[in-house]
């Protein structure tokens, strides 16, 4: 039963004043340089307003020019905006904010926090900033990226979330108290996305810290969802994490489910995991078979496949971008163009849009400046170079500035029909919306690196290549460098020992003349016995017994070769005569 859009559409650009850089009568594409500067100005208007009126609260209230805590009490907008600062080229402010966060953010607080939101915004934001710190000119400590203050903060925040995963199914509660764990009366009903949106952040955290618990719980939750799908291959919207029974049985690609599918694809790419990709491709078949109509995606009953809600939700607009990641460009563009017609109709995407009627759904007429359609435009423009995608970026800039801009930032649009505003500026506006807009108009940004440049970094475990591109954005648009996951793969016990050796090496390098004299007069230098060395055979045997049965990368084994040879692998310091 195909559904078709029946209402006439009015182009947004005809409703807005023509700016320099916008397409003229000849239909020329928007000027990227012009809109790049416009987007940068949007960011600083919002960011400065937050700093002046709302910090240290989580978010800005732009109509009253003050702040409020929303998802915890983390100065959330500052964390969410940190990597955007670097993408815009502001290294000095990035460095300043890193210091501010270290001094001011505390996770030992009696606050009930969303497990999902804390992960994607706080853990994801801190991990991304940690991995970008060296590029931003931050003086990183010995052992980076396998250690560092932002990494320790991300790990601390993630550990606060772990009690939520202690359920019979391995699927997490939706809320956890950061001080006391899960409250005794906490509801066991969690949305699908709230269960399946951890593998990107948690696998990164496990790879960097050497503690497998994070990736283990994320994988267990993913697998339990996979095992809970219906006979026709669909998952519902909400599930009881204690019993594993579906509470809401609507299946679709939008709110409550969206980032579960997103993380199967991105987790597969990040981890080079064929199983995760195979899971997504199976879901994709069921989604095409039961929910797709005329390149729209509807909501259906998960067991029967019958239509339950013929609506498009604004959160679904990430889907064309996800399709582009698996190479399904034609389908992605057709769906994107459907969604773009809705934007042109209203100057934004309403939260719910009734497809047969071609209009908004009552009480779902708002647009909280969400990024998803812009995100898809960015991905598809990288894949196709189609100027239509730049036109969406132009329309977004013009619309948001005309409707949403106020003296103290940008306000959520409460109703797209009459442009009434709401007193909130979500942190994702600076983390995602502005970032994707800027990247759409900035083809030479370091995020788009194709591998032609990179940084070679010496880690406690050898040389590591970073910054070569291929960044994986988490669902809050925090970029993760996939190469970083291969920099720190050692047992935790060995990591501590090697980091001690690296610190000792840096200390020796500062006293090079004495060090060189010692090595020339007495032969190869041997480490003293004590903590942080490998001189004890008993300690070596104990470490060996704790090794897992199977290792993809050979573990460090210092007794197998002279210490001078091992240091040569970590930078060839003995050959440096300068």
Automatic annotation (TrEMBL):
PANTHER family: ER DEGRADATION-ENHANCING ALPHA-MANNOSIDASE-LIKE PROTEIN 2 (PTHR45679)
Cofactor dependency: Ca(2+)
Top-level taxon: Eukaryota
Main function: Involved in the endoplasmic reticulum-associated degradation (ERAD) pathway that targets misfolded glycoproteins for degradation in an N-glycan-dependent manner. May initiate ERAD by promoting the first mannose trimming step of ERAD substrates, from Man9GlcNAc2 to Man8GlcNAc2. Seems to recognize and bind to exposed hydrophobic regions in target proteins.
Molecular function via GO: calcium ion binding; mannosyl-oligosaccharide 1,2-alpha-mannosidase activity
Pfam families: Glyco_hydro_47 (PF01532)
Record-level GO cellular component terms: endoplasmic reticulum quality control compartment; membrane
Annotated Ca(2+) binding sites: 475
The protein, known as: alpha-1,2-Mannosidase
Family: Belongs to the glycosyl hydrolase 47 family.
């Amino acid at each position: 039963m195909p559904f078709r859009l029946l209402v006439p559409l009015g182009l947004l650009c005809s409703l807005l004043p023509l700016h320099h850089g916008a397409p003229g009568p000849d239909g020329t594409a928007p000027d990227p340089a012009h809109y790049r500067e416009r987007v940068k100005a949007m960011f600083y208007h919002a960011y400065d307003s937050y700093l002046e009126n709302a910090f240290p609260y989580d978010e800005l209230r732009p109509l009253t020019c003050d702040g409020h805590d929303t998802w915890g009490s983390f100065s959330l907008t500052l964390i969410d905006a940190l990597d955007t600062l670097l993408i815009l080229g502001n290294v000095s402010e990035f460095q300043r904010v890193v210091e501010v966060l270290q001094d001011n953010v505390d996770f030992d607080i009696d606050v009930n926090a969303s497990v999902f939101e804390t992960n994607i915004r706080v853990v994801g934001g801190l991990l991304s900033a940690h991995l970008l710190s060296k590029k931003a000119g931050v003086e990183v400590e010995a052992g980076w990226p396998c250690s560092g203050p932002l990494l320790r903060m991300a790990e601390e925040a993630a550990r606060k979330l772990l009690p939520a995963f202690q359920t019979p199914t391995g699927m997490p509660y939706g809320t956890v108290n950061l001080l006391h764990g899960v409250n005794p009366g906490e509801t066991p009903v969690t949305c699908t996305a709230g269960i399946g949106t951890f593998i990107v952040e948690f696998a990164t955290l496990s790879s960097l810290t050497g503690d497998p618990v994070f990736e283990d719980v994320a994988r267990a939750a993913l697998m339990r969802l996979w095992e809970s799908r219906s006979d026709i291959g669909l998952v519902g919207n909400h599930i009881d994490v204690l019993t594993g029974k579906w509470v809401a049985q609507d299946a679709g690609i939008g709110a409550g489910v969206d980032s579960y599918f997103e993380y199967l694809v991105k987790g597969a790419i990040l981890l080079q995991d064929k199983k995760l990709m195979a899971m997504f491709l199976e879901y994709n078949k069921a989604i095409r078979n039961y929910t797709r109509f005329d390149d729209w995606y509807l909501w259906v009953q998960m067991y029967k496949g019958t239509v339950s809600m013929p609506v498009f939700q604004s959160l679904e607009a990430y889907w064309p971008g996800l399709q582009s990641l698996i190479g399904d460009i034609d389908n992605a563009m057709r769906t994107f163009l459907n969604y773009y017609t809705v934007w042109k109709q209203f100057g934004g995407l309403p939260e719910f849009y009734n497809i047969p009627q071609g209009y908004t759904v009552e009480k779902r007429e708002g647009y909280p400046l969400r990024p998803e359609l812009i995100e898809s435009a960015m991905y598809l423009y990288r894949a196709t170079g189609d100027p239509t995608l730049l036109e969406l970026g132009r329309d977004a800039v013009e619309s948001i500035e005309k409707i949403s801009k106020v003296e103290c930032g940008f306000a959520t649009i409460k109703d797209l029909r009459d442009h009434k505003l709401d007193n909130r500026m979500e942190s994702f506006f600076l983390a995602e919306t502005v970032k994707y807009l800027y990247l759409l108009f900035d083809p030479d940004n370091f995020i788009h690196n194709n591998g032609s440049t990179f940084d070679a970094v010496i880690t406690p475990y050898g040389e590591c290549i970073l910054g070569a591109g291929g960044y994986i954005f988490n669902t809050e648009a925090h970029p993760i460098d996939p190469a970083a996951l291969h920099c720190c793969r050692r047992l935790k016990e060995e990591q501590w020992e090697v980091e001690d050796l690296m610190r000792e090496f840096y200390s020796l390098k500062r006293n090079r003349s004495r060090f060189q004299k010692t090595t020339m007069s007495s032969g190869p230098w041997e480490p003293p016995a004590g903590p942080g060395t490998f001189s004890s055979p008993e300690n070596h045997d104990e470490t060996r017994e704790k090794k897992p049965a199977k290792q993809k990368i050979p573990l460090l084994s210092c007794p197998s070769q002279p210490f001078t040879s091992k240091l040569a692998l970590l930078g060839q310091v003995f050959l440096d005569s300068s």
